[in-house]
Write a structure and sequence with these properties.
Blueprint lengths: L2 H5 L3 E5 L5 E5 L13 H21 L4 H19 L6 H8 L11 H17 L7 H12 L39 H13 L6 H15 L6 H15 L11 H6 L1 H14 L2 H40 L4 H11 L4 E2 L1 H8 L3 H13 L4 E2 L9 E2 L1 H16 L1
Antiparallel strand pairs: 1-2, 3-5, 4-5
Helix pairs in contact: 2-12, 3-5, 3-16, 4-5, 5-6, 5-9, 6-9, 7-8, 8-9, 8-12, 11-12, 12-13, 12-16, 14-15
């Protein structure tokens, strides 16, 4: 492949009437075709095996959907942090539990919206394929009532956007996506690629589709988050995983600079193969981490069930009932436990106290009244790697 072939493999920069240069993407798949051999072939095989192990690990859980519940929230936090939000997983869980805290970051609503957009998208996949229509619906959910929410939620942009450091202009931007007049055509070609019958492996197709979406940048805001949501939707739609439990935002967050550089190298130099290698390494790493977390959840559940049976006596039945509910709702009040168990407030308060003594629950407000309790050991399984990364 010549240098000229490579430089226009993903598309071309075209000078616009007002002088700036915008990128017009070429349709997928790339030409010349991808060289899926050597290292890429090995990485693809490793990624397939890692996904198989993850699928098996998750399906052995008593209720895989509870694993999905927390993983969606971890993904929401990390994908939003890539875009500059400050909210943590603890903030998100507290917000969902209607726990007001004046120290909570104001951008937590953006993360709450991400969770809702993910849930809406996954439910819509049962009746609507991944398509321009779906991404517009998801974008509307994502941007509703938050920063950037005035920038046409759910609507394709009607003006030029650009990517670069704060204060940059069209002339100095790092990357200028196609003019808005080109967006419907480019998205139509992108949608056709998603659903045409090709010999490309599903992971390769998903990796290509993600870059193309980010290159088109069809919305005025929220493109990065929608593009990362698309990876999960496409993995689910093509049946690579039984449950949507592979979220690459952790890998992209850890390697943020490399992530952006690979996207730009595809546009500038047609480096699709290098992007694919990066993407597949992310799949391998994140799938292994998720499979390990699934195993740790199983072990944690068994340890807590044993402790409740051994220590709570006649209250063990209600203790088990509360424990199972905590995997779905890891922040509770005494009133929640009372409603769940059908006991008196005093009995529920006593049960919460004993669960706290076992290290299952931790009081998180410091209040004497209106106390909230968190399933600390479970939440920690999803936050330890985020904390250690941010502290590095």
């Amino acid at each position: 492949m010549s240098a000229q072939d490579a430089s226009v493999r993903a598309g071309r920069y075209i000078r616009q009437p007002t002088g700036y240069r915008a990128f017009i993407p070429a349709p997928l798949p790339p030409e010349p075709p991808l060289a899926l051999n050597g290292e890429l072939q090995g990485l693809l095989s490793q990624a397939d095996r890692a996904l198989g192990r993850l699928d098996g690990s998750v399906l052995t859980l008593p209720n895989p959907d509870l694993f999905v519940f927390m993983y969606v929230r971890k993904e929401a936090v990390l994908s939003s942090q890539i875009e500059g939000t400050q909210s943590s997983l603890q903030d998100l869980l507290a917000a969902e539990a209607d726990l007001f805290d004046e120290t909570m970051p104001r951008d937590v609503d953006e993360v709450v919206n991400y969770v809702r957009a993910m849930d809406v998208g996954l439910s819509r996949l049962t009746e609507l394929p991944v398509s321009v229509r779906l991404i517009r619906e998801i974008h509307a959910e994502l941007m509703k009532g938050v920063r950037g929410g005035h920038l046409q939620p759910g609507e394709l942009r009607r003006s030029q956007n650009w990517i670069g450091p704060a204060g940059c202009t069209l002339a100095t931007a790092r990357f200028v996506p196609p003019p808005y007049e080109e967006v419907p055509r480019a998205l139509g070609e992108w949608e056709s690629f998603l659903h045409e019958d090709t010999t490309l492996p599903p992971l390769v197709k998903i990796a290509l589709a993600h870059v193309q979406f980010e290159t088109i940048h069809p919305f005025l805001d929220g493109n990065g988050r929608v593009g990362r949501l698309l990876i999960t939707f496409l993995l689910t739609e093509c049946g690579v995983l039984h449950k949507p439990v592979l979220y690459l935002s952790h890998f992209f967050h850890q390697h943020r600079q490399a992530y952006y550089e690979h996207l730009q190298d595809v546009r500038d130099r047609g480096q699709w193969e290098r992007w694919l290698a990066f993407f597949l390494r992310g799949v391998i790493e994140v799938a292994a981490e998720a499979a390990d977390t699934a195993r740790r959840i199983q072990l944690l559940r068994e340890q807590h069930r044993f402790a409740i049976t051994e220590k709570l006596g006649r209250a063990a039945g209600n203790g088990h009932r509360v424990l199972e509910s905590l995997f779905d709702r890891p922040i509770v009040t005494v009133a929640d436990v009372k409603a769940l168990t059908g006991t008196t407030f005093a009995a529920a308060n006593n049960l919460v106290t004993r669960l706290a003594e076992l290290g299952i629950l931790s009081e998180m407000t410091g209040y004497a009244r209106n106390r909230r309790f968190r399933f600390e050991p479970y939440v920690r399984l999803f936050t330890d790697d985020i904390v250690s990364e941010d502290a590095a």
